Amino acid sequence: MDKFKIEKMTLNSLDEVMQIEKLAYGQHHWSRESFVAEIDNQISTYNCAYTQDNKMAGYMGLWKIIDEAHVTNLAVHPDFRRKGVAKALLLNALDECYREKIKYLTLEVRVSNDGAIKLYESFGFKSLGVRKKYYQNNNEDALIMWSENIFSDNYKKRYEELKEKIGDCILR
Fold it and tell me: What's the pLDDT at 1?
């Protein structure tokens, strides 16, 4: 697994974010204005993963509302897929949630996105419902996935195993 440094998304990182966004989502991607609004949003946190030679490999956004964090998006540049970028971003998000006493994480994911579903399941997310015709470009359904309480003994054990397995992929 490669090593990545995780940094807050800034206005200066948006050119690279938009490149990855277009590669990941085609013409149905978020606008630059959406990311600008999210960077300024009091309830959101957006982070970028960079390689050791400062290439942006991916990014992830969270909305934090009381004791829940909603993963708004997670995208990895095609050149860096299957190298631990998404895992590093998710592990970093869990670290933030522990620091901020956020108990649950949730997200929507395309029912056809087997790779992402497996990734989220490896982090303890379970499908607890479906949003019918959620994606506007093709009316595809979305799975609604939730973590259990991350402060539960069961989840803390999973978290420690994840940290042991992939924690060294985050440069501190």
Answer: 67
Which of these is catalytic: 46, 50, 59, 120? 120
> Would you call 108 a catalytic residue per the annotation?
yes
Find the domain containing 103 and state its range: 4-171
Q: What is the pTM (predicted TM-score) of this model? A: 0.92
Counting runs of H as helices and runs of E as strands, what totals does the chain give? Answer: 5, 8
Which CATH number fits the domain that encloses residue 68?
3.40.630.30
Over the stretch 94-133, which tens digit does the pLDDT of each residue have?
999 999 999 999 999 988 888 899 999 999 999 987 778 6
pLDDT at 136: 63
Instruction: Give the active site residue among 108, 140, 161, 164.
Output: 108
Hey, CA dihedral for 65, 129, 82, 74, is it positive or negative?
A: negative
Main-chain phi, psi angles of 147, to 5 degrees: -85, 160
Residue 121 is a catalytic residue: no
Tell me the CA distances in angstroms from 130 to 39, 111, 120, 144, 154, one per residue in order.
29, 9, 15, 6, 25
